[in-house]
Amino acid sequence: MRIGICGFPQTGKSTVFQALSAGNGSASSGRGGVTYGAIKVPDPRVDALSDIFSPKKTVYAEITFMDVGGHGVVGGTALSSDVVQAMRNADVLVQVVRAYDSPMHADPPDPATEVQAFNDELVLLDLAIIEKRTDRFSREGRKDGFVDVNSRCQAWLEDGKPLRELGLDREQLVTLQGIQLLSLTPLLTVYNLAEDELDGSPWKAVAEKDPSAYALCGELEAELAELDDDEQAEMLEGLGLKEPASHEFIRTAYAALNLISFLTAGTDECRAWPIKQGTSARRAAGAVHSDIERGFIRAEVYRWEDLVKHGSEAALKGLGLFRLEGKDYVVHDGDVVNFRFNV
């Protein structure tokens, strides 16, 4: 699962990426100027289980962030082919928007214009693809559901609206598979603030009302990410924060991928396992090992918070909080699971 960090030049998107990868993962360069980061998803539930079991190893879920490179100026030239291809390879897009004054910029920040300009770029790219499809369907004399959905998409895009807002159902989305429409890709917006405006910026208030938006200070997050645990804790205390804002943003991006984590716990390892929301117990077992899915018998399940409250698995069994579930049980975020299997 890949999350592409995008934005116009000098919005601080590379600083935001560095803050994420320096504190929670590792970065490496790829083709076309794209930088990849395997980012650990901060998870206090894993920490709590590790405190109880004192395991040999603690493993967090990971997702991949991509810094896809710069674009043109706001309202200027089209996106480069390398940037567009990198964006097409992302499962979620994150637009970093400048919401701070800087001597590097002659003009004051204008987040609303940046957001609209980025939307317009994606819509125009998708419209070009859909129009070519319309021409091909016409030449073929085709008349089916593919044509109907394509026509709806074209009309929507011609109104300047992204396809993610069209409300296509699962069957309709199947007709668009394989053509990598950017305005259909889930989009998060990050308002990059100045440190002295973390509490007073109107764009923080905008982000707080929008579940697909987040506000943080990229420079501050990058500085925090470079500190050791004690120094970071001291700086956070001075700022009146419980954790870096980047941690919550990583969890927001993780959820945008429709991912949840189930947990495994013991003296060898405490670990978070990423799965799609709605995954059955048997399919979830395959995240651990294909043999476990193949030989699945049943799942032993309890809630992580119940273990923290009562202190041991034995106590949970005595209270009826330790359950046996079958292959069709839908695993929930925060379930602690031990799979019984036979191969």
Q: Can you give me a brief rundown of this structure?
A:
This protein has 343 residues and is α/β, with parallel strands linked by helices. It contains 14 helices and 13 strands. It is 42% helix and 22% strand.
3D structure, described in words:
The protein contains 14 helices and 13 strands. With 343 residues, the protein is α/β, with parallel strands linked by helices. The protein has a domain of 64 residues: Ubiquitin-like (UB roll). A seven-stranded mixed beta sheet has the order 2-3-5-1-6-7-8, sandwiched between helices. Strand 2 and strand 3 form a beta hairpin. The longest helix is centred in the middle third of the chain and has 30 residues. The protein is flat and about 65 Å long.
Order of helices and strands: EHEEHEEHEHHHEHEHHHEEHHEHHEE
How many strands, which pairing sense, and closed or not: the largest β-sheet? 7 strands, mixed
Give the low-confidence spans.
Answer: none
Annotated CATH architecture of the domain at 278-341: Roll
Kindly name the structural category: alpha/beta
> Could you say what the CATH topology of the domain at 278-341 is called?
Ubiquitin-like (UB roll)
**Per DSSP, what share of the residues sits in E-state strands of 2 or more residues?**
15-25%
Radius of gyration: 23 Å
- Rounded mean pLDDT score: 90
What best-fitting shape do the alpha-carbon axes yield? flat
The total of helices stands at 14
Question: How do the strands and helices of this protein lay out in sequence?
Answer:
Layout: E1 2-6, H1 13-24, E2 25-29, E3 35-40, H2 44-53, E4 57-59, E5 62-67, H3 81-88, E6 92-99, H4 111-140, H5 145-158, H6 170-174, E7 187-193, H7 202-209, E8 213-216, H8 218-225, H9 229-239, H10 245-256, E9 259-264, E10 269-276, H11 281-288, H12 290-294, E11 296-303, H13 304-310, H14 313-318, E12 323-325, E13 335-341
Parallel strand pairs: 1-5, 1-6, 4-10, 6-7, 7-8
Antiparallel strand pairs: 2-3, 3-5, 9-10, 11-12, 11-13
